[in-house]
Structure formats: structure tokens, C-alpha cells
Design a protein that fits this description.
Helix content is 62%, strand content 9%. It is mainly alpha-helical.
């Protein structure tokens, strides 16, 4: 008998499994480059648009400053990014790729192609999955924060 309470019927569990599978697929290849998955997506954001403020980067990655700050520290220690203080008072910090960080992009592109080829889904199926995952994230984004006056 199937009910809505069965684990394999839960959308959240399917998304959880998909996320774990995706990060696992990248793990070994990224490890060879000295990167974690979170460092990888941070670099993706910077390759897309370099010289970003920390707050802008955190918003795009959906990471809070407590997670992002040590991540950026490790990327800087590995020589992939640098932080620059900007603005009249120097309080705004922007993140910039170094030459080494930029050079890593072509190596990562080869990993992406190899993993794309290994997935048993068409390009159209992958595009649909990505579109639906984005749509799902956007639609539940507003429900993840308690409303004013709601019990916590």
C-alpha cells in the first residue's frame, strides 16, 4: 500500500538524493584540483562575474556570512582569489579572481563536460530538470522564513 508518507514518495527526499548524487559526482575530480563543491560553485559565480562584493556573492550562492567568510579565506590562502577593500571608508570588500583562479576555469570545464557525458539523461532532460529545480527553489524560498507573529 502506498501512502503520501512513504519515503520514496517525498519530493524533499528525491531532491536530497539528487543533491547528494550531484556533489558526489564532482567530489573526486574537484579533490584533484584541491576544491570542495562549495568552493567550486563560488568560483563558478566569480567566473561569471568577477569583482563582486561579499554580500552580492553570498546572496547569489545563498550562503550566510558565517559560511562564506571561511570559504573565502581558504580560497585566498590557496591563491585563487583576493579580497580588496573599496569605497571611501574601505568598509566594502570585493572579491577578485587571481590569475591562478582564472586559469582553473578551463580545467573545471573539462570536468563538467566529462560528468555531463556520464549522466544518462539528454541535454533537454537536464535543462528541464535544472529549470524545474530553480522554479521549485524560487517558489519555496518565501516559505522558509517564519512570518511575523508566527510561532517559532
Amino acid at each position: 500500500m502506498q501512502t503520501d508518507q512513504q519515503l520514496d514518495q517525498q519530493l524533499c527526499f528525491a531532491l536530497y538524493g539528487a543533491a547528494k548524487a550531484a556533489t558526489a559526482a564532482y567530489r573526486d575530480s574537484l579533490h584533484e584540483l584541491g576544491l570542495t563543491y562549495t568552493q567550486y560553485v563560488t568560483l563558478l559565480a566569480l567566473w561569471e562575474r568577477d569583482a563582486r562584493t561579499v554580500s552580492d556573492l553570498g546572496a547569489d550562492l545563498r550562503l550566510d556570512s558565517g559560511t562564506l567568510s571561511p570559504l573565502l579565506t581558504r580560497l585566498a590562502a590557496n591563491g585563487l582569489i583576493e579580497r580588496r577593500r573599496e569605497g571611501a571608508d574601505g568598509r566594502q570588500v570585493s572579491i577578485h579572481l587571481t590569475d591562478a583562479g582564472r586559469d582553473l576555469e578551463s580545467r573545471v570545464a573539462a570536468i563538467q563536460r566529462r560528468l555531463h557525458d556520464a549522466v544518462d539523461m539528454s541535454s533537454d532532460e537536464l535543462a528541464t530538470l535544472r529549470r524545474l529545480a530553480h522554479r521549485f527553489s524560487e517558489s519555496v524560498g518565501d516559505t522558509t522564513h517564519p512570518t511575523e507573529g508566527a510561532p517559532r
